[in-house]
Structure formats: structure tokens, C-alpha cells
Write a structure and sequence with these properties.
The protein is mainly α. It has two domains: about 240 residues, no CATH class; about 220 residues, MetI-like fold, CATH 1.10.3720.10. Helices cover about 65% and strands about 0% of the residues. The protein contains 27 helices and two strands. Strands 1-2 form a two-stranded antiparallel sheet. The radius of gyration is 37 Å and the shape is elongated.
Length: about 550
């Protein structure tokens, strides 16, 4: 009886444990942990956003720019599509349809002021293409003027805005455009008249581009603007290839008269290929067309190939000529000189840091001010000072001549070369080596060295076997800091390096600010980043990143 009575109590005790508010304890604990994590995330969110915006996003943008190449396909959509079927290895210029596509693409690009940007992009790969596109943008009007003049001689309406709008535009759009006035917002989007694309396909497509360009880019009404000469060329091609005898829409008589004119033997025509070559004979160079085709994909490895002194050829990647290979030399020079600067900083900083760490606190603090003093002086001022001191008529050479160590007519060349860069950058980066070393050395107990000496070790043995190993983490931290800073410096090498003392970073700065070849600059920066990460990984494997300390 008693066992049966106690059974319900046991069942009740085996139920879930509840919190004070009646919620299951496990659920309440999970909710508390989740709230704690959200509060922690909220605390670090500003820093996380700052890192994403100022560090991760720029690196991602740099990686994208190093392979992005959409300007060619977006500016020359018809040409790049037509070039896919062209065999550039055959040694023959492209067929007629590609010249025609190039005419339409470059004409529209010139109206939108995009042809010069495209020429600049392709000029990175083949010298002279930039001027080629500039001349073509100005000269392609001559092709359309041949047809425009003949149509205008037949009927002046072919050079007026309104007849073209009635022929091509939807009546509803025309009425809406007529009712539009400035200050009424955006113009009504252009709409083609039903069926006109079947009768005049090229003309309809080209006039649509013209009308929308006028509305959006020029903010002018197509009812009042004379059409491009490109549209007259398209009209000729449509009339020559099609039949408009059954057309009975607006301006039918004008269109049929133009059709008869085109069919007459006296109608003058123009060859696209001959017209292009007349504008600039370089269009007859097959390498120009090969360059356009090679760089027509939206993404390219060309920037990275250029960054390693290679280029994209018709048969695949190939090395550039010997006199054009500069980036490999710059990368080697950058790594070598950064290593020399790092070693020279170690040699100069170690005794200074050792002295500071073993002096009384008051004296060490006064000397530390001298170490930090360069931070309070402009980088340009310090670099310019070295330029004055190292030149052949500078302070150092004057002192050497006065001491009789150097003849007056044999003064040392210490500027505009690697020596000048190493000296100036060692001086600038020296505090970055002293501070990590000092912070580590100040934590080394002097009793360790005294204990070693009391056991019979000489001063050198006590230093080398006891003190130096404990200072290695400071050397490692300073070396990483100085090496990474030096590998990316460009102001000091630019001022004192001349032609033999500049770094790869100087070339990156040149492409960003002068040549505006941002893709190549991004590729060079990406390679430099990869090299630094590789060296960082090697350092971790050999020394161990856990052994790097900044004190404590």
C-alpha cells in the first residue's frame, strides 16, 4: 500500500527542472547564454565593422580588380560576340561582319565618351591602341555622312528629328513626349512603334539606343534632336537587305522613295574595312584585333601575367621581351633590400635596446625620448634631410673630404641608389625595431645572468647562452614589423632611390596615380600580399609565431 502511494511522487520528481518563473531550466539557461553572446557581439560590432570596411573590403576589391575586365565586352558587345568565331591564328584580318559590328560599337561608345576608356585599357596590352580609338571616335561620322547626305538630297526630312520620331516611335509615346515639360520629372521612356522592328531591324535598334541616350544622358527630347549619322547607315543596310514595298505606316512615301534611291546604281556606298583603315592604318594590323579578342572575356588573367613579366598571346601565356621585364627585378630588389634593412635595424637596435633595458628607469626614459623623437618629425622632412646629407656636395662627403678620407674629385655617390634607400629607411624604421626589443629585454631578470656567472660562465657565455635566447622573441617581433613596413614603403625610395633603389610599391603607386592601370596595380598588390603571407608562414614554421612577444 505504501509503495503504491509513493509511486506518483517518484513520477513527479522525475519531471523537468524548472526555473523560478516556471520555465524549464535548460531552456532558461540557453536563453541566458544566447543573450550573453548577443551582448558580447554588440560590444565588438563597431570594431568588426571597422575591420570589414577598412581592411577586408579593400582587399576584396583589390582581388576583384586584378581579374575584372568587363570594360571590353560592355563597350564592344557586338564586336566581342562576332570575334568569337574568328580564327586569329589564320593570319587574315576579320571578315566584313566584324568590321560592321566594330563600327556600331565604337560609334555608340564615342557618343557616350567611353571609347577613350576602352582605348586606355587596351593600350596597357598593346601600345598605340589608345590613340587609335581616339581617332576612330572622331572619324566614324564620315561613314554615316555618306548615306546621310544622299538621303538628305532626296528629302530634307531625313535630317530632321520629327519625321524620324514618327517613323520609329509609338504614337502613344510621341503624345506623352509632347506633353512632357521641364520640371515634370523623367521623360516618358522611348517605345518603338509596333512592327517597325520587322521592317527596319537595324534602324529600329540603333534609333532606340539614340532616343534613350538623348533622354537619359543628354536630357533632350528625341522629337527635337537630329539623329546620329549611324542611323542613316543602319537605314541603308535595312533598305538594301529588306523589302519595304508593303509598308503603309507613317512616312511610307518617304521610306519607299529612299528604298528606290538605295536600289539605284548611282547610290554611293562605303566599305567598313576601307573606312576604318582610312581613319587609321593601324586597323589593318591583325595584332589589334587579336588584342581585342584576347581581352574580350569579362575576367582575365592578363593583369597577373603582366605582373610577372608575361602576357596573353594567341597561343596562351608567353614571356615578354627581355627589355620589357621589369616586375620580376623589382620584386627581387624589394625582398632583398627589405631583408638588408631589417638586418641593419637589428644590428643597430639590439645594443640600444640592451642599454635602455639595463639603465636606471629615469635615464632610460630620457634616452627613450630620443628614440621616439623621429616619430614627431615629418617623414618627408627626415627623408629630405638624408637627401641633403648623402649627396655628393652634402654634409657627409664634405666631412670625408675634410678628414682626407676621400678626394675632392672622387666624392662618394650615396644618393639615388640602393645605398641611399637602405640608409634612409634604416633610420626611419629603426624605432620600430628598438621598441619591441626593449619591451622584451626589460622583462628579462638580471638574476639569470648573475646566476650563470656565479656558476663559472664568462660574460660572453652568460650573454649568449642565457640572455640572448630570452631576447629572441623581441627580435622576431621587430623583424616582422620592420620587414612588412619596408616591403610596402614607397615615399622614401621614390625620393632617395633613383632608378636602382625603388621598390615594387613605387610601381604600384605609379599605376594607381599616374597610368591609372588599377588592374595591374591590384595584381601587383595581390602578389605582394601573397609573398608577405608566404614569408609569414615560413617564419611561423621555422621560428614559431608563439615565440614573438612585445614584452610581458
Amino acid at each position: 500500500m505504501s509503495d503504491a502511494a509513493s509511486a506518483p511522487d517518484k513520477t513527479a520528481d522525475s519531471g523537468p527542472v524548472l526555473a523560478a518563473d516556471g520555465t524549464p531550466l535548460k531552456k532558461s539557461l540557453n536563453r541566458a547564454l544566447r543573450n550573453q553572446k548577443m551582448r558580447a557581439l554588440a560590444l565588438i560590432a563597431p570594431l568588426l565593422i571597422f575591420v570589414l570596411v577598412t581592411f577586408i573590403a579593400p582587399i576584396a576589391d583589390m582581388l576583384f580588380r586584378s581579374v575584372e575586365n568587363q570594360i571590353v565586352s560592355e563597350t564592344l558587345p557586338r564586336t566581342t560576340t562576332a570575334l568569337q568565331d574568328w580564327d586569329e591564328k589564320g593570319g587574315e584580318l576579320p571578315p566584313a561582319e566584324i568590321w560592321e559590328a566594330a563600327y556600331y560599337d565604337i560609334f555608340i561608345a564615342a557618343e557616350r565618351k567611353l571609347h577613350t576608356r576602352l582605348g586606355t585599357r587596351l593600350n596597357y596590352e598593346q601600345t598605340g591602341v589608345s590613340s587609335l580609338f581616339r581617332k576612330s571616335g572622331r572619324g566614324l561620322d564620315d561613314i554615316g555622312e555618306v548615306y546621310q547626305d544622299q538621303f538628305e538630297d532626296l528629302d530634307e526630312n531625313w535630317d530632321e528629328a520629327r519625321p524620324w520620331a514618327e517613323l520609329m516611335g509609338d504614337p502613344g509615346w510621341i503624345a506623352a513626349q509632347e506633353g512632357w515639360s521641364e520640371g515634370a520629372g523623367a521623360m516618358p521612356p522611348f517605345e518603338l512603334r509596333d512592327g517597325i522592328s520587322d521592317v527596319l531591324p537595324r534602324t529600329a535598334e540603333t534609333y532606340s539606343v539614340f532616343a534613350r541616350f538623348m533622354q537619359t544622358d543628354e536630357e533632350e527630347s528625341p522629337l527635337e534632336e537630329e539623329p546620329w549619322t549611324l542611323i542613316h547607315t543602319a537605314l541603308y543596310q535595312d533598305l538594301a537587305a529588306g523589302d519595304v514595298s508593303s509598308y503603309d505606316g507613317p512616312r511610307a512615301d518617304m521610306l519607299k522613295a529612299a528604298d528606290a534611291l538605295v536600289a539605284s546604281p548611282d547610290f554611293e556606298t562605303v566599305s567598313f574595312q576601307e573606312a576604318f583603315v582610312d581613319i587609321d592604318e593601324d586597323w589593318g594590323d591583325i595584332d589589334v584585333w587579336k588584342t581585342i579578342k584576347v581581352y574580350s572575356p569579362n575576367y582575365t588573367s592578363g593583369y597577373f601575367l603582366n605582373a610577372v613579366d608575361m602576357q596573353k598571346g594567341a597561343d596562351g601565356p608567353e614571356f615578354r621581351d627581355e627589355d620589357e621585364r621589369i616586375y620580376g627585378l623589382l620584386f627581387k630588389r624589394t625582398l632583398f633590400m627589405s631583408m638588408v634593412i631589417t638586418i641593419s635595424c637589428i644590428m643597430l637596435a639590439y645594443p640600444v635596446a640592451y642599454l635602455l633595458s639595463n639603465l636606471r628607469a629615469r635615464t632610460a626614459n630620457l634616452l627613450m625620448i630620443l628614440v621616439l623623437l623621429p616619430f614627431w618629425t615629418s617623414l618627408l622632412v627626415r627623408t629630405s634631410a638624408w637627401k641633403v646629407m648623402l649627396q655628393q656636395q652634402g654634409v657627409i662627403n664634405d666631412v670625408l673630404v675634410w678628414l682626407g678620407l676621400v678626394a675632392d674629385d672622387a666624392r662618394l655617390v650615396m644618393i639615388n641608389n640602393q645605398f641611399g634607400t637602405i640608409v634612409a629607411m634604416t633610420h626611419i624604421l629603426l624605432p620600430f625595431m628598438i621598441l619591441p626589443m626593449y619591451s622584451v629585454m626589460s622583462t628579462i631578470q638580471p638574476s639569470y645572468v648573475r646566476a650563470a656567472k656565479s656558476l663559472g660562465a664568462t660574460n660572453w657565455t652568460a650573454f649568449w647562452r642565457v640572455y640572448f635566447p630570452q631576447s629572441v622573441p623581441g627580435i622576431g617581433a621587430g623583424s616582422i614589423l620592420v620587414f612588412i613596413l619596408s616591403i610596402g614603403y614607397y615615399i622614401t625610395p621614390e625620393i632617395v632611390g633613383g632608378t636602382t633603389g625603388t621598390f615594387i610599391s613605387n610601381r604600384i603607386a605609379y599605376h594607381i596615380s599616374s597610368s591609372l592601370n588599377w588592374g595591374l596595380a591590384a595584381a601587383l598588390g595581390t602578389i605582394l600580399l601573397a609573398v608577405v603571407l608566404l614569408l609569414y608562414w615560413c617564419y611561423d614554421r621555422i621560428v614559431g609565431i608563439d615565440n614573438v612577444k612585445l614584452g610581458g
